[in-house]
Design a protein that fits this description.
With 340 residues, this protein is of the alpha/beta class. The protein folds into two domains: 7-139 and 266-334, D-Maltodextrin-Binding Protein, domain 2 (3-Layer(aba) Sandwich), CATH 3.40.190; 142-239, 3-Layer(aba) Sandwich (D-Maltodextrin-Binding Protein, domain 2). The protein contains 13 helices and eleven strands. The protein has helices at 7-31, 58-74, 89-96, 111-114, 116-119, 127-130, 155-164, 179-191, 203-212, 222-230, 278-292, 295-303, 313-334; strands spanning 47-51, 78-82, 104-109, 131-140, 142-147, 170-173, 196-199, 217-221, 234-239, 266-273, 307-311. Strands 2-1-3-10-4-11 form a six-stranded mixed β-sheet, with helices on both faces. Helix 2 crosses helix 11 (278-292) and helix 8 (179-191) crosses helix 13. The two termini are 36 Å apart.
Length: 340
């Protein structure tokens, strides 16, 4: 949690930040500095990291870890502000409308960029144009799991069972259009099987439904499902990501099994408003990179079953562009639609 200042201190802090910014602007004009030189003063005041999801979620916790590290890096207060609602649209729109100076950032999942535009006919922003990628920080390797009572122990066995008993199996996802939904609908299309989709309002209730036997199949990040796998309540069938989970060395990936398009990997990353100076974007990325590669921070992240990615602005943008086009087809296959 960040330090909470009194009203007077907050006012003085903001006033001081405004005065510093004004002085820098005057100096730039008088001395003939290029406007981009102002980026060298970043950060000049409090930095907000907006998380468009509820407090307490994995993304929120990671954002706070990064914020704490950045506060130490910059000697400035970095806070996390939760703005949940409307499939991450509310918080994301807030950042797209913020001043493009690096002091308001977005920490979100990749589907904000790659799925929302395909689900909603109208968005109040274009994430691919109104945001600039800064650092793709962490990836969540996803596991296809089955309730322990289901007599299948691998993805091929699941597909064989679905062929033999059309419509008898069901799977839970954490919402229509979620990575889990798109990945399973892609698998169903490729394998030509009929498995009923049951959407839930979030990862936790979807996984709980698999454990309780309400549905037979589900998707989960390894860190979230680890305890249930180790307890024998869930059985891992395949890794729905391009790489194996180190803690499950004998569980193959969907790609190894011939279904490379079935990828439910979730990426958490930082973005800034479009037109944020490149110098500022690079400075933020470099600071986040140092935080992520701090041995204690990395240990904390990996203990949660997550993988540090630390991908910079250019490679992050390229990856988003690829997944944007990939998810267009995945959404078409799934039939997922929004209410807008």
């Amino acid at each position: 949690m960040g330090i909470v200042f009194g009203k007077t201190e907050t006012f003085l802090s903001r006033r001081g930040g405004m005065l510093r910014g004004l002085c820098l602007a005057v100096l730039a004009a008088v001395l003939g500095w290029p406007i981009s030189a102002l980026a060298q003063a970043f950060p000049s005041r409090l930095v907000r990291i907006v998380v468009p999801y509820v407090p307490g979620a994995a993304m929120d916790s990671l954002a706070r870890v990064i914020a704490t590290g950045l506060s130490a890096e910059w000697g400035r207060q970095v806070i996390v502000e939760n703005r949940p609602g409307a499939n991450a649209i509310i918080g994301t729109e807030m950042v797209t409308r913020a001043e493009p100076d690096g002091h308001t950032l977005l920490f979100t999942a990749d589907d904000t960029f790659t799925t929302l535009p395909h689900l909603f006919r109208k968005l109040p922003f274009d994430p691919m144009k109104d945001l600039v990628p800064v650092n793709l920080s962490v990836k969540v390797l996803m596991v296809i799991v089955a309730n322990a009572s289901v007599p299948v122990d691998s993805l091929p066995a699941l597909i064989a069972s679905a062929h033999a008993n059309p419509g008898a199996l069901s799977y839970g996802s954490y919402g229509a259009g979620s990575n889990a939904h798109l990945a399973m609908e892609t698998l169903k299309s490729l394998a030509k099987v009929d498995i009923l989709h049951v959407p839930y309002k979030g990862v936790a209730p979807a996984l709980a439904a698999v454990i309780a036997g309400e549905v037979q199949i589900g998707f989960s990040g390894y860190g979230t499902a680890r305890g249930q796998i180790e307890a024998g309540r869930l059985r891992p069938l395949a890794i729905a990501s391009p790489e194996r989970v180190p803690q499950l060395p004998n569980v193959p990936t969907t790609g190894e099994l011939g279904y490379g398009e079935v990828d439910a990997t979730v990426w958490f990353g930082i973005a800034a408003p479009a037109k944020t100076p490149a110098e500022t974007v690079n400075r933020i990325h470099e600071a986040v990179s140092r935080v992520l590669n701090n041995p204690e921070t990395r240990k904390l992240i990996e203990a949660r079953g997550l993988v540090v990615a630390d991908i910079g602005p250019k490679a992050f943008a390229e990856q988003l562009a690829r997944k944007f086009h990939f998810n267009a087809e995945a959404v078409r296959r799934s039939g997922a639609k929004s209410d807008q």
